[in-house]
Specification:
The complex is a heterodimer of chains A (113) and B (313). A 3-stranded mixed β-sheet of chain A has the order 2-1-6, covered by helices on one side. In chain A, strands 4-3-5 form a 3-stranded antiparallel β-sheet, with no helix packed on it. In chain A, helix 1 packs across helix 2. Chain A is of the alpha+beta class. Chain A is built from 2 helices and 6 strands; from the N terminus they run H-E-H-E-E-E-E-E. Chain A has helices spanning 3-21, 41-52, and strands at residues 26-34, 61-67, 69-73, 78-82, 97-101, 105-112. Chain B has a domain at 109-299: P-loop containing nucleotide triphosphate hydrolases (Rossmann fold, 3-Layer(aba) Sandwich), CATH 3.40.50.300. Mean pLDDT of chain B is 79; it is low at 1-10 and 17-78. The longest helix of chain B is centred in the first third of the chain and has 17 residues, at 92-108. Chain B starts with 12 loop residues before the first strand and ends in a 14-residue tail after the last helix. In chain B, a hairpin with an 8-residue loop joins strand 1 (13-15) and strand 2. A 9-stranded mixed β-sheet of chain B has the order 2-1-6-5-7-4-8-9-10, with helices on both faces. Chain B is α/β, with parallel strands linked by helices. Chain B is globular, with a radius of gyration of 22 Å. Chain B contains 10 helices and 10 strands. Classes of the chains: A alpha+beta (113), B alpha/beta (313). Chains A and B meet through helix 1, helix 2 and strand 6 of A and helix 1, helix 2, strand 3, helix 3 and helix 8 of B. Strand 6 (105-112) of chain A pairs antiparallel with strand 3 of chain B.
Chain lengths: 113, 313
């Protein structure tokens, strides 16, 4: 639900990078968003459109690459796939899991003019 | 503006008490906040653009002349499209500001605690009681976050402890920059305890590091046992869970053991305390926990050099 602030942070980075990498128009933004990242893609798209209106990223396509979540199970001593934070280990059923992937909230790259 | 929670922007206010802090600050603060709001409603691009440039000069020491004329030539029919790598955390700015706050606190032996919960869990009441228990032993300062009103800061000031209210306007959480500004006004003393009472919300504050030593999540027994599962991010991010209002346990169907089990599912390392601010039961353990954390903060104190964490008032 903080997608508004997330979108504003994205725009801020796009504007900074525009000065650094010398582009004036953003056509596409590719994000890596982890399954555990607490971002709702639909809300992110909605707020991104609102935030970028009248900016260098107006009408930019938002491509969201969803990253799978993984955790290290201490009893099993191996990496397992999870879908939510409270998931049990699919092998032993325990909850002694340390999340190792799935919390990503990154801007990967852009298509720009 | 966010259609879900109205979370948006531009109205952050940091308010102080008394003659010294009588002025009300209107931040364009999270630059970003004001930015989106204005675009949304005012379409005031130019002014906002200037604002962003200004912000950048402030923080990056102006690497930038903006000169779009040096980009690829505007030749009709010639595609200028290209791909640029960014590879940057979306919240990198907040995280950087939080890092500055943390360095500021570490340098001064200040224990900063970020208190988070749903609205109505009793955060402020607990804070008032905590201050009464702790005031003789440590200097205390409080940052109060709410969308509107300075009621909570007024309640804290009534205990004699300095407090500053941050009104987030339409924003649904405090961010690191707001805390930096608030701290610059509050100027908590060396070796003090700084309580940051976040906006009542179990979702958004989880994602925003403020530079605190610990997030403390408060859950009252009038809420549900499954809240840790419904809002896993917050319970995952917290180091301590306080089960509050336990004096009401005889009157409500609340299963303490199940709540703790649920919290441990999302965060096996979370510690749990049970207390009632009204009767005082369990308060001692909470105060002991704060003292232990405070000792850690002071022990880990690095040489007292000027740090630009909280920007000047």
């Amino acid at each position: 639900m903080h997608e508004m602030a997330i979108s504003e942070s994205i725009l801020s980075i796009l504007e900074d990078e525009g000065r650094r990498q010398r582009y004036s128009r953003v056509r596409k933004v590719r994000l890596e968003i982890g399954a555990l990242s607490s971002i709702e893609p639909q809300a992110l798209r909605f707020t991104f459109d609102a935030v970028t209106r009248g900016t260098l990223a107006e009408d930019a396509v938002l491509e969201i690459i969803e990253m799978e979540a993984q955790a290290w199970c201490l009893p099993c001593a191996q990496s397992v796939a999870i879908r939510q934070r409270f998931d049990a280990c699919p092998l032993c059923g325990g909850h002694q899991l340390q999340v190792t992937a799935g919390e990503e909230m990154r801007i990967k790259d852009l298509e720009v003019d | 503006m966010c259609s879900v929670c109205g979370c948006g922007a531009g109205e952050t206010r940091i308010e102080g008490a008394g003659a010294r802090h009588a002025h009300v600050h209107t931040h364009a603060d999270g630059t970003t906040h004001a930015h989106a709001h204005d675009h949304d409603h005012d379409h005031d691009e130019h002014e906002q653009h200037d604002h962003h440039q200004h912000h950048d000069h402030d923080h990056h020491h102006g690497d930038g002349v903006i000169d779009y004329g040096n980009g690829p030539a505007h030749v009709p029919g010639l595609s200028k499209a290209r791909t640029v790598a960014i590879e940057q955390e979306i919240l990198s700015k907040n995280n950087a500001a939080a890092g500055e706050n943390r360095a500021y606190f570490n340098a001064r032996g200040i224990l900063a605690l970020n208190l988070v919960s749903s609205p109505g869990s009793g955060k402020t009441t607990l804070l008032v009681k905590t201050i009464e228990c702790l005031a003789a032993e440590a200097a205390i300062a409080v940052v109060e976050g709410d969308q509107q009103t300075s009621n909570d800061a007024a309640r804290i000031r009534a205990t004699g402890v300095p407090a500053i209210q941050v009104n987030t306007g339409k924003g649904c959480h405090l961010d690191a920059d707001m805390v930096a500004h608030a701290v610059a006004h509050l100027r908590p003393g060396d070796d003090s305890v700084l309580f940051i009472e976040n906006v009542g919300n179990l979702v958004c504050p989880a994602a925003f590091d403020l530079g605190e030593a610990h997030k403390v999540v408060i859950l009252s027994v009038t809420e549900g046992e499954d809240k840790p599962l419904k809002y896993p991010d917050m319970f995952h991010a917290a180091d301590l869970m306080i089960i509050a209002k336990i004096d009401l346990l005889p009157h409500v169907d609340f299963n303490v053991a199940e709540t703790i089990a649920n919290a441990r599912k999302v965060n096996p390392r979370i510690r749990v305390l049970q207390l009632s601010a009204r009767t005082g039961e369990g308060l001692d353990a909470w105060v002991q926990w704060i003292k232990a954390a405070h000792t850690m903060a002071r022990t880990g104190r690095v040489a007292p050099t000027p740090v630009g964490g909280a920007r000047g008032a």
